[in-house]
Amino acid sequence: MHGEMKGGHMHGEMKGRYMHDEMRKNWIKKSVLMKEIMEHLSPEDKKKLAAMKLDMKISLVEKKNEILKDRKELVAKKLDMKTYASEKELEILKALRDMLKSKD
């Protein structure tokens, strides 16, 4: 059956929903905890924390951009290889056609 517990682990359709709900609960707990901590921080510490968060986000976006550039290069190389193979195939087919025509 879908969503059965087997050996303490969720299997089937319910696994994705269960994990999503669990992740959401953890995120909510973390958010509440962060709000409580923020209440006790000085304005200067709040600014430092905000700057640290922005630094982390900037780093993540920079890394994502690097990955996208690498992926773009790989896709371009793959297309170049396909184009080259197609051109070679076309040359071979034309050569075969010419050979058949010349034997007549």
Briefly say what this structure is.
This protein has helices spanning 14-39, 43-102; strands spanning 5-6, 9-10. By secondary structure, it is mainly alpha-helical.
- Biggest β-sheet strands, sense, barrel: 2 strands, antiparallel
Give the termini separation: 69 Å
Q: How many beta-strand elements?
A: 2
Q: What general form does the structure show?
A: rod-shaped
Number of helices: 2
Q: State the helical fraction.
A: over 70%
Radius of gyration: 29 Å
Average per-residue pLDDT, rounded, comes to: 85
Describe this structure as you would to a colleague:
The chain is mainly alpha-helical. The chain is 83% helix and 4% strand. It has two helices and two strands; from the N terminus they run ββαα. The protein has helices at residues 14-39, 43-102; strands at residues 5-6, 9-10. A two-stranded antiparallel ribbon has the order 1-2. A hairpin with a 2-residue loop joins strand 1 (5-6) and strand 2 (9-10). The chain is rod-shaped, with a radius of gyration of 29 Å. The termini are far apart. The model has no long low-confidence stretch (mean pLDDT 85).
Secondary structure topology:
Blueprint: E1 5-6, E2 9-10, H1 14-39, H2 43-102
Antiparallel strand pairs: 1-2
Structural descriptors:
104 residues; rod-shaped; two-stranded antiparallel ribbon; mainly alpha
